[in-house]
Specification:
This protein is α+β, with helices and mostly antiparallel strands and 77 residues long. It has a domain of 49 residues. It contains one helix and three strands. Strand 1 and strand 2 form a beta hairpin.
């Protein structure tokens, strides 16, 4: 079975790493030196999360959060 999860990727200049978040899974997070590494680590993290939830009998909701990233202008002093 294959499931699809939305992943947010963000570059963190302070640590020079790509950070990922999975909103549908309690915002679990990991990182990598490149986008590809961050996504590979995220895939492993999701699999581990799902396996642990299954083992503990914790139900995992179907992916479904709908979100967008938008630019919002804010007036500053």
């Amino acid at each position: 079975m294959t499931r699809s999860f939305k992943v947010i990727l963000q570059f963190d200049p302070e640590s020079a790493a790509w950070v990922s978040y999975v909103p549908d899974l309690e915002n679990i997070s990991t990182y990598g030196d490149s986008e590809q590494e961050a996504l590979a680590n995220t895939r492993e993290l999701i699999v581990g999360y799902l396996e642990a939830a299954d083992k503990e009998g914790i139900s995992v909701p179907a992916p479904g959060l709908d979100f967008r990233v938008v630019d919002l202008e804010v007036a500053t002093a």
